[in-house]
Amino acid sequence: MAGSVVISTLLLLLLLSHKQYSKLLYRIMPRHVVHRLQNGQQVVEVFDDVTVFFSDIVGFTDLAGQSSPLEVVALLNDLYTKFDNLVDKHGVCKVDTIGDAYMVVGGAPDRCEPSEAAAKVAKFALDALEEMTRSGHAISMRAGMASGPVVAGVLGTSVPKYSIFGDTVNTASRMESTGKAGLLQATEHTRDLLLESSSRFEIEERVHANGQKGIMVKGKGIMNTFWVRSVSEGS
């Protein structure tokens, strides 16, 4: 009898542990990806036209130098918790956070029309910028987005991680790094997708003070880019 009780208790603990592990996996990668991993399947997918978002906190280095490590962690945790809620709200996928950088993708792993994916990411980005404004901290955020093909897959086994790769990812990162604080910069292709979507975005071509268009982008040359300013209420 005692042996049966011990075995039942161990089995219950094992099941609870498995459930908690699954719940944790669902928080860090898409549900259907977790199911494929649990079935021992390799996860590698190609997506023809998704939209990738990058952000970076402007002034973070100075702030970190003037704050304690605990204060820095508390700040990032507060911001990223709000961003995570926006990920759920807009139906995009959080891919990574590296220090003060945050990355999401729309249209992968859950496939949808490219224009819909771009709209979801843009709405997420605009809300994230608004959250930065309301945060009350002496910091702001640069944000960039680009659209195109990517390859997605899960790396590692002990600590599996859902990642995306491709030139689109690099371009989105460049849109962020060449942008301006408090603004969302997009490529021409992303602009076109937003205009095709059912939402109404206010978009303005980036023009220099001398009237010249286009910016120099590393590895790309001169690119025409656009500021995504806002989206109409109710869209």
Estimated share of beta-strand residues: 25-35%
> Helix- and strand-based class?
alpha+beta
Query: What is the domain total for the residues?
Result: 2
Q: What is the CATH first-level class name of the largest domain?
A: Alpha Beta
Helix share bin = 40-55%
Which CATH architecture of the largest domain is right? Answer: 2-Layer Sandwich
CATH topological fold name of the largest domain = Alpha-Beta Plaits
Regions with pLDDT < 50 over 5+ consecutive residues?
Answer: 1-5, 11-16
Number of distinct helices: 7
Cα-based radius of gyration, to the nearest Å: 21 Å
**Would you count the extended β strands for me?**
10
CATH homologous superfamily placement of the largest domain? Nucleotide cyclase, GGDEF domain
Nearest-integer average pLDDT: 86
Report on the biggest sheet: 8 strands, mixed
Oligomer: single chain
Distance between the termini: 63 Å
Assign an overall shape: globular
> Helix-strand pattern, N to C?
HHEHHEEHEEHEHEEEE
Quick recap:
The protein is α+β, with helices and mostly antiparallel strands and 235 residues long. It has seven helices and ten strands.
What do you see in this structure?
Its main location: membrane. The protein has 235 residues and is an alpha+beta fold. It folds into 2 domains: 1-41; 43-231, Alpha-Beta Plaits. The chain is built from 7 helices and 10 strands. The strands form 2 sheets. Strands 1, 2, 3, 4, 5, 6, 7 and 10 form an 8-stranded mixed β-sheet that branches. A two-stranded antiparallel ribbon has the order 8-9. A hairpin with a 5-residue loop joins β4 and β5 (161-165). The termini are far apart.
